[in-house]
Design brief:
Elements: H1 3-10, E1 27-30, E2 33-39, E3 42-43, E4 46-47, H2 58-80, E5 86-97, H3 105-120, E6 127-133, E7 142-150
Parallel strand pairs: 5-6
Antiparallel strand pairs: 1-2, 2-7, 3-4, 5-7
Length: about 150
């Protein structure tokens, strides 16, 4: 089954890609590896903001991480033309705006990780980091980047 068919089966529509907010590229390809810059969570064109342990629930943050994952997929599709060229999701890096006493960053980033497995199956399983930070660009509650192996075949 193609990845487009899988997305359709899951009822997933990819968002429009977001341009870089500063002096960097949203996607950089080097050989068979694509580096996707940190993607922010958008809902209806607006960044989901807040801080875990203060004003954002775990469930809302997991949905925000999933939104970051959807933006990663949108950036990959824009770069590759087809998500069928993804050979492996190698690594995700998750950054969670959180209070010092919040310790469930790993559960937040599951929102993006679970999406990759839903869409790609076993090639969506990946290495990962989930890090708590005091703040993120434009007040986002979560940001996720990715390293992806691709094949032109």
């Amino acid at each position: 089954m193609s990845i487009k068919a899988r997305l359709d089966e899951l009822g997933i529509t990819l968002p429009e890609t977001s341009p870089a907010l500063a002096s960097y590229l949203p996607v950089m390809r080097h050989g068979d590896t694509i580096f996707v810059s940190g993607q922010l969570p958008f809902r209806d064109g607006v960044v989901i903001t807040g801080t875990l342990g203060k004003d954002v629930s775990l469930e809302d943050a997991q949905e925000a991480a999933r939104a970051c994952g959807l933006m990663i997929l949108a950036q990959l599709k824009a770069e590759l033309g087809s998500l069928d060229k993804v050979a492996r999701i190698v690594k995700l890096g998750g950054f969670v705006a959180s209070t010092p006493d919040f310790t469930d960053q790993h559960k937040v980033v599951n929102g993006a990780s679970d999406l990759m497995f839903e869409v790609f199956g076993d090639i969506g399983r990946h290495a990962r980091a989930a890090v708590g930070v005091p703040s993120l660009p434009v007040g986002a509650c979560v940001e996720v980047d990715a390293i992806v192996a691709v094949s032109d075949g």
